[in-house]
Design goal:
Elements lengths: L1 H62 L5 H31 L7 E5 H16 L3 E5 L5 E5 H17 L7 E7 L3 E8 L6 H4 L11 H4 L8 H11 L3 E7 L3 E9 L15
The structure holds adenosine-5'-diphosphate (ADP).
Adenosine-5'-diphosphate (ADP) binds next to helix 4 and helix 7.
Amino acid sequence: TGAKLELHQAPEEILGLATAFNEMLCRLSGAWEQQRQFVGNVSHELRTPLTVVVGYLQSLSRRSTNLSDYQQQALETATAETERTIRMLQDLLDLARADTGHLHFRSQPLVLNTLMAEVTAMSQKVSNRTIRLLMTEEDVVVCADQDRLQQVLINLVDNGLKYSAPDQPVDLVLEQTQDCAHIHVCDRGIGIPLSHQQRIFERFYRVDESMTRSRDGTGLGLAIAKSLIEAMNGRITLRSKPQAGSTFTLTLPLWKAPHDSSYPPSRR
Ligand code: ADP
């Protein structure tokens, strides 16, 4: 029958299709790789001259006397915007490295209680805002890169502070279930509408420019947080309600001590 004939012809056609498809895939991933390398190189190359520019702007601001309000304002804006661009380039560089698997991780057993206490103290000092820490008495241990996890946590706490009123606290909560550690960062801020929640972890995605534009940021923080936490075998999730607040949760597998190991691991 016609159907049988088609079946006889199919393998050759499928083979042809598969070859064309594979070629296409190969070219695409080559182009993708080139694009990542390009972004990485450009970020790297631009950072150095911009750092020099910031240096000059700062020294100009320090040495100049009798500046008019306009000149003072212009210098401050130029410095702040250049510093923001440098941060963005560093973020892009980190993302490009994460994409190509070149981001260096030093994962080791880590007591989250200690790390969270440090992050709370640090953020509180810098922001002068109330950050409440709630955690279990017992140590919660995961296998993670301490500096990278700290970077993610600071970023989430910063966002919590940035997108809520100055008199509102941010809560850091640590709990553990049978196999996982959960870190919640909760704020009572502007919240994120459901329609944006899917896209919030995309690069450069910011909810409403009119709402967020006035707040310093690059739109890369959550993309980096997701990329870093996934590289540590964890995940990041979000629950949020507009005008009520947001809770970002980091979930990481618990570290299981090998029978012959000495416990506890380094508490720094
Ligand atoms: P940004 O530098 O803009 O803060 P992020 O990647 O950290 O970049 O966040 C992306 C966007 O997600 C923000 O611009 C903001 O619109 C939204 N967002 C992030 N965290 C919060 C939060 N805690 N509350 C409300 N909106 C948030």
